[in-house]
Structure formats: C-alpha cells, structure tokens
Specification:
elongated, about 75% helix, 7 helices, three-stranded mixed sheet, mainly alpha
Length: about 220
Amino acid sequence: MYDLLLILAIILLPLLAQFYITSTYNSYKKKNNTEKLSGFEVARKILDANGLEDIDIVSTSGTLSDHYDPSRRVVRLSNDNFNGESVAAMAVAAHECGHAIQHKEGYSLMKIRSMLVPVVNIATSLSYYIIVAGFLFQILNLVYIGIALTCMGLLFQIVTLPVEIDASKRAGVQLSSLGLALGNDSAGTKKVLTAAAMTYVAGVVSSALQVLRLILIYGRRD
C-alpha cells in the first residue's frame, strides 16, 4: 500500500506542477504587457542595464525551452517568448536574465550546480543498473551504492531550487526598477514566476520520495 502511494506521488507531483505552470503560462501568454515589449526587448533592456551588453539573446525552438547558457553566454528564448509581447514572455525573459546576472556576480550556488552537472549525469545514468545488478546477484552492497548515486540527483535538485527562486527574485526586481512591468503586468509576472518555481519544488519532493522508496525496498531485502 505504501509503495503504491509513493509511486503515485512520484508520478503525480511533477505532472501537477507541470500542469500548473503550463496553465498559468498559457493564461498570461494571451495577455499583452502594457508597454508591448517583446521578450527579446525585455531581456535586452535588463542585460544592458546590468552591464551585460556582450550577452546575446537568440530564439530557440520548443515550448518553455528558455534557458541561459553560461558557457556560451547566451540567453535562449523560445520562439513565442522571443517575439511575443505577452506578460508571460516578459516574465520568462526576465527570469533567464536573472541567471545571467547570477553568473556575472559569481552566485555560489549556481557555480555548485554547474560543477554537479557532469557528476550527476554519470551517477544517475549508472544508479539503476547498479541497483538491479545488486538485486539480481544478491550483492546488497551494490544496491547501497546505487541508492547513494541516486541521491546525487536529489542533491542536484536541492541545489537547483534556490538558484531558480533567486533568479525569479532578481527578475522581479529588474522588472520593477526598470519600469518594465506596469500595473497588472507586475502581478501577472509574479504569478508566472511563482508557478515556474513550483515545478522545482515538486522536483525536489519527487526525487526525495524516489530515494525513500528505494531505501524501503532495500530495507525489505530479505
């Protein structure tokens, strides 16, 4: 019974969070911001105001595929957000610029997250193979090692959460201080940024539950 509840929580939490961000984003995607600024224009104004004129802003395919690439110093905005003049486009563009500002200021958790990426990719790709091998060959120490490797994914999620929340806070400050989000735009951008943060909260909880489930299975190894 407990296993079923854990599995449902692991599956449903990210789905519910994704539904929340998608529905909120789609709602504010239909509402133009007061100044009718495109996501590109919002990003350019924020970057330039923070001495980041050398950072390029490019359009990329996909939906909500927006991200900041610190290695190439490029803000990539999905087509809808690059060209769109919606409240949602404004919020997303400002958030990605928040990451660029973090990079410029040497935000410590962002550095840690970047260093964890290659380690986490290897650890998570190997973890379940090691766990399965441990059970098949009854080498329980392998199971323990596999669970420990899975915890690297949880650690990455835990580090990522404050990085994303901080980027959203910086986005709100920039939109306000530069006079970009006026009137109802401010409330709308906050809702979009809050919804985005919830996906990372759900990711942390889901990863923690996955590790807990593996530990419970390991505890019943007999």
